[in-house]
Design goal:
By secondary structure, the protein is mainly alpha-helical. Helix content is 88%, strand content 0%. It is built from 7 helices and no strands. The chain has helices at residues 2-14, 16-37, 44-76, 80-103, 106-140, 143-153, 156-163. Helix 1 crosses helix 2, helix 1 (2-14) crosses helix 5 (106-140) and helix 3 (44-76) runs antiparallel to helix 4.
Length: 165
């Protein structure tokens, strides 16, 4: 099911007509969300807390495996130095893009807006192609031989790093 979903999402990203149909189909949900949460203010400490809460909800599926493994190791009292390093690396990796955005002024972002919109269009097509490819490889089972070949060709230190936790 995940492979089919990846192919479907990739197709939507690749085909402008499908993007329009998806936006039309999702319109009622978007209207409900706007009506329900559109008056949400991001001003002040409470508003910023809400933005952070939303960001945390969106990031949770991505960060769960890393933080889950590190938290489990910490709870067991295993490799506490490694846990601390993992958590620190994760925190720094999460903070750096946010700090870069904060340091860029609103004026600079507005100047770059046109270029970012054009780049987003191209990146959307690239992401769509990658999703269709990954979904197709997964659906056909061809992802396993590729993964095996990449693992076999990877340097030992990289395999040890990615499988040590």
């Amino acid at each position: 099911m995940a492979a089919i979903l990846m192919i479907a999402v990739g197709a939507v990203l690749l085909v402008p007509h499908l993007q329009t149909r998806f936006a039309t189909a999702a319109g009622p949900v978007a209207n409900w969300t706007e009506h329900r949460f559109g008056k949400f203010s991001t001003a002040g400490v409470g508003g910023q807390f809400g933005v952070g809460l939303l960001m945390g909800a969106v990031w949770t599926p991505c960060v769960g495996p890393t933080l889950g493994a590190a938290s489990l190791m910490a709870a067991r009292g295993e490799n506490l130095v490694e846990v601390a390093i993992t958590m620190m690396a994760f925190g720094v990796g999460t903070a750096v893009p946010l700090l870069i955005l904060v340091m860029l002024s609103r004026e600079l972002l507005l100047r770059w807006r046109g270029g970012m919109v054009r780049a987003a269009s191209t990146l959307k097509m690239v992401l769509g192609a990658l999703l269709v490819t990954a979904g197709t490889l997964t659906l056909t089972g061809l992802d396993r031989p590729i993964q095996t070949a990449l693992t076999a060709g990877a340097p030992g230190w990289l395999t040890a790093l990615t499988t040590s936790i």
